[in-house]
Amino acid sequence: LSSSAALEGKGQLKFTSGRWSPHHNCTQIATANDTTVRGWDTRSMRQIYCIENAHGQLVRDLDFNPNKQYYLASCGDDCKVKFWDTRNVTEPVKTLEEHSHWVWNVRYNHSHDQLILTGSSDSRVILSNMVSISSEPFGHMVDDDDLSDQEDQHQEEKIKEPLQDSVIATYEEHEDSVYAVEWSSADPWLFASLSYDGRLVINRVPRALKYHILL
């Protein structure tokens, strides 16, 4: 054991989840206990932020945006997924309310942080496109010199279009609570889900969205 920290408070305070931040030279970790999310500096084991009542009920899971160092996602028994900027934790940056029961898992895609995966006790897996709070809210940058006049006009029209955060797909192959979802570490378009129905289901990001992101 290299270092430790203890929570102070009434009753039995239990951690329900923890997540290393891939940023800040891996010196920060986020933990969830009851309805609160806390950030810790592992060098001093001091608390660096605290999101009290992050969720109305138990916080189930956390995940850091792999490309935006201050962005953290949380989910819980209030059926919500919330996105936080840890520099200002008074209000979530965005909230998703697509599930109808406890949300067990939330996972950012490792390569394309606009893609968010969630699993819930409503037996569904939801794939969302949170483009407005991603590291590429305006899509891939295109060099003006590479565009013809027609392409340039088309590009301007695309830029004028409002950003759309949306649910891409809802997967209902499971017959019981989905307690784990995870992206493939080898293929950014592949993901798996586990359920109390005893099945592992593997799905792909829809091809049309894949090419939309890449092109």
Automatic annotation (TrEMBL):
Pfam families in the cross-refs: Beta-prop_EIPR1, WD40
GO biological process, one term: protein ubiquitination
Keywords, in A-Z order: Repeat, WD repeat
UniProt repeat feature WD, residue ranges: 52-88
Superkingdom, taxonomy of origin: Eukaryota
Ranges of residues in domain EIPR1-like beta-propeller: 14-127
Family as reported in the entry's similarity comment: Belongs to the WD repeat EIPR1 family.
Name the record gives this protein: EIPR1 protein
Organism (species): Grus americana
